[in-house]
Amino acid sequence: MSAGRETRRIEVPRTARYHVLGGGGATLREAWFVLHGYGQLAAPFLTSFEPLASSERRLVAPEALSRFYLKRGTGEIGASWMTREAREDDIADLVRYLDLLAERELAGRAVAVHALGFSQGAPAAARWAVLGKTRVARVTLWSGTFPPDIDLERHAERLRSIRWTFVHGKRDEAVDGAVVERDVERLRARGLAVDLVWFDGGHELDRPALEGLRQE
Prior knowledge:
- By secondary structure, the protein is α/β, with parallel strands linked by helices.
- It has 6 helices and 9 strands; from the N terminus they run E-E-H-E-E-E-H-E-H-E-H-E-H-E-H.
């Protein structure tokens, strides 16, 4: 009789790529970690945030660890934060990655951390803020949803310490606005501070809505 097959796991070193705009000096007050969506790359995604960069605000755009060809075999390349396969491992890797990145970029400085995730990056940002070591003051879920697997009771204290903002396009065909509204009500029912911002657009970053986040 042959031996049974086993699934084993091993942690391995990885080289992650990220891009930075603004900040860096003694006047630094805020660090925004902006997480791209499915099939995007960090550098072009960060371009949309250029007007927000300043000496007081550093923008950090990490790139998801799983890059792939958007078209079979060749062509444009994108990245993904996770899939349904080995999901728990991907979540643990994501949280560890962003904690290490924050530790490196902040270098112990007491600055306000804002995690903004677009589309697939939205639940990734929420998971990091709730499950990671980094103290995140604000999370913005843009054109995305709150991860249903986060235990609201178990993580109640951390959840309440965060300001939550959902930003959603009225004509978004990729993510149902009704689902976003249900997420908002679910969090508010737990006594969390949750804002919902609508803009007249689709599944995209909207410049006026971004400017509004900066001014708050």
